[in-house]
Design goal:
Blueprint: H1 3-25, E1 28-36, E2 40-41, E3 44-45, E4 52-61, E5 64-73, E6 87-99, E7 104-115, E8 121-130, E9 137-143, E10 152-163, E11 168-180, E12 190-204, E13 209-220, H2 223-228, E14 232-242
Antiparallel strand pairs: 1-4, 1-14, 2-3, 4-5, 5-6, 6-7, 7-8, 8-9, 9-10, 10-11, 11-12, 12-13, 13-14
Amino acid sequence: MKKFGVMLVALAMAAGVMAPAAQALEVTGDVYLGYYNMYLWRGFDLSGGMPVVQGGADLSAKGFTLSYWSNYQARDDEGAGFESGEITETDITLNYTYALNDLVSLSAGNIFYQLEGLNDTNELYGKVALNTILAPSVTVYWDYDEAESDGLFINAAVGHTIALTDKLGVSLGAGVNYNQASDFSVGAYRDWHNYELSAAASYALTENFSISPSVLYSSGISDEAKERIDSEVLGGIKATLLF
């Protein structure tokens, strides 16, 4: 069975297993699958400009969320040596979010990156988010595993969602990233890395099933970053099932 088939089976099993578990344990969750023109991560094109399929599942209870996510190469990437049908990355994330009050929430977690052709690694992260206009947030990531330097990567973001109808909503977002010598994932330099502008729509076909087209523009900020990454446009569509 091809790896893409394995991923589809895993997502289907996740939906089947998590749904009754959610009812028994009073948890919430989702399963999703999307198609994109490339795999873009922190400004880097990680699929050689080739399309990818990305899928995952989340399970949440009492402030904790356990997440699974995989990237499937839909066409050959000769530059990185990835073949069509190959799962190039799988991430497992454990997150905890605590609301200090109606305005401020804190999140902390760990991301385990299982990487094809590279050493696996881990990142700890902490996030502060404000429940106010534009929903500003700051997230600090620390690669404590493979990064030989400080390993910090910092994201500041804002966003806003507009409900156009009961079934249709539009979300707009913007973010900037600063790299503090996270040499394993980004590069051993300290400077502003990239900025991102995004727009997405979500249409609810049913109470629990939605379709979401999206587009994101990313570009380097500092001269160092511009030498490492190109300006890119990421586009795709995702289907999400809530339970």
